[in-house]
């Protein structure tokens, strides 16, 4: 019995731990500048700066964002009992983006300076919550209506973002941060950003991991959850807030990165043949980080010397998964 | 220890507004109790009141002599477990996942206890199967196993015999009878099943949010009460000590 339960997990780890390690190594060497192997043994000052101050912070950001989005997706799918739910599809990410851009606008207009480190994620979180609340309010009619409400809100928020974006560019034509946010990228991330992201994510992720079985209860039924000692409404609301935080942290530092939250939990469930969140959530952290690392490598190598938007790469393999799930969902 | 596991005194129960008006009832322990009544009569609402999922607007409600108001949600597993008729989930939890996603008074159900309960109900062979791939009868037994695993002395089962074929229906009915006899706990089941009511210790007939009749099955399962309860001409016959029902209608030439 123990063997049959642990086997898929062992297999999963045997596959993903080496993949993750290779992903990290590739990200150290590959980028706008290719770091030669020899530089590891005898690094010149320039290579040391590239590795320590550029590549490693980016790698850590990939791991944090991959983890945050994967966990947000897994939790949303359970909370909404909807296999298609994830921060991008439910409109949460577009709300977070609008909030982050507003933070940037305030920063530019009023020259707030250093508090902007807090202002952008904070407004991003408020935007994420606003979008999610509207989507939940209008998407009550079944599993597809949540998705449709999410798409509608995404489109609306994207329009506001475009208007805001154009306005920002007229004030400061050379503002690079806008492009970062719209396209999704980890380039430019520094250790300070990583520390902020981790200090928000770590407590949230820890709480979610500890409560993974309660997340299962929500997936079963509200009455069952309540009789088992978990207030379903309160717990669901708390989880919506926590996934909003995870999304806001990712979006305000690395912009829109779609479909990691959708694909990763399903990939994990498929490879361990289980939807038990006490296994799916921690393992999705590993697979989410891995996917992000490779998406980042691909974004750097497609055109030498240029970084592609990561969301273009994640969406490219995320959308087929979405279509596949839509087809499966019709049989239910 | 109170001789009644559940008591309602002048209780008005509902969601936004009361559906059940001023009911007073006692459910003896241990017992297999069936709540009969037409659709929308308030059967499920009554069960939900016991797990605080429906609101009690006035009057009193007790589990095990303790006022339901005073039991916080996190302590509910000490008193009660609940099994819905169906669970709708597109997520592929296994049978074991479902049974271990349950709390007793102390904490989460461990795997050994879960397997023991599955074995007790004779379904340990499907422990690692996906729940959504099971037959309706198997699903029902798994949900009963999940409720039983919590070791609460009160099991609430919403429509445990609905949508089952004849043999699965009897399997569930006999399982419920066996649980009550073996473990000395109380099972309250809702439904329309006369056979389940007949094998019960206590039957409550609810109509339009009001108790129409309450008592041992011999006093409740008769032509007069059933006809009034379901608003249709029902005849109860007794053959070799078994009660059978049939419904008069224009297509039957009697």
From TrEMBL, chain A:
Main localisation: membrane
Hydrolase as UniProt keyword: no
PANTHER family: ABC TRANSPORTER PERMEASE PROTEIN MJ0876-RELATED, FERRIC ENTEROBACTIN TRANSPORT SYSTEM PERMEASE PROTEIN
Family per similarity comment: Belongs to the binding-protein-dependent transport system permease family. FecCD subfamily.
TM annotation in the entry: 12-35, 56-76, 88-110, 117-137, 143-164, 171-189, 238-260, 306-326
Protein name: Transport system permease protein
Keyword Transmembrane found: yes
Alphabetical keyword list: Cell membrane, Membrane, Transmembrane, Transmembrane helix, Transport
Organism of provenance: Vulcanisaeta moutnovskia (strain 768-28)
InterPro entries: ABC_BtuC-like, ABC_transptr_permease_BtuC
A GO term from the CC aspect: plasma membrane
Membrane-topology annotation of the record: Multi-pass membrane protein
Pfam families in UniProt: FecCD
UniProt GO MF annotations: transmembrane transporter activity
Annotated compartments: Cell membrane
